[in-house]
Amino acid sequence: MAEQVHRLIYRSHSTVPRERRDEVLAEIFDVARSKNKKAGVTGALLISDNWFVQTLEGDETVVTELFEKIREDDRHTDVSVVESATVEDRVFSRWSMARISPIGRSDIPLHDVEGRIRPAAPDQPGREQQDLLTRMRNTIGADFV
């Protein structure tokens, strides 16, 4: 049975210096995974050069409040909402926060919302997930689709 959830997608410009990127991104993912799991939020973060594109899925109030905190983070600027809508089901239901490369591959192990470690995303994600990943990449010109 499908659940209705709120999905918010935003993009922003990273202010993280290249030489600190790995360290800062590791911190972002550690905090996001822990807090998102507790809040029932799932999603994915696409990182491409100096851009972030993130999808958040969950209860509308929780997602909106989380986004407002994210918007104030000084590790990025030019934050803009790409999409904000109620949808029938989560696309990233297994992951409290997946890290996705510009070409759509997961480049670190993914954690599902129950805290179990899952292997990297399959080479052939579901159609809905693939479509959403393509839309995320297209918002920053990472795809030519």
UniProtKB/TrEMBL annotation:
InterPro entries: Acylphosphatase-like_dom_sf (IPR036046), BLUF_domain (IPR007024)
Coiled coil: none
Limits of the BLUF domain: 5-98
Gene3D superfamilies given in the database record: 3.30.70.100
Gene Ontology MF terms: blue light photoreceptor activity; FAD binding
Protein name, entry field: FAD-dependent sensor of blue light
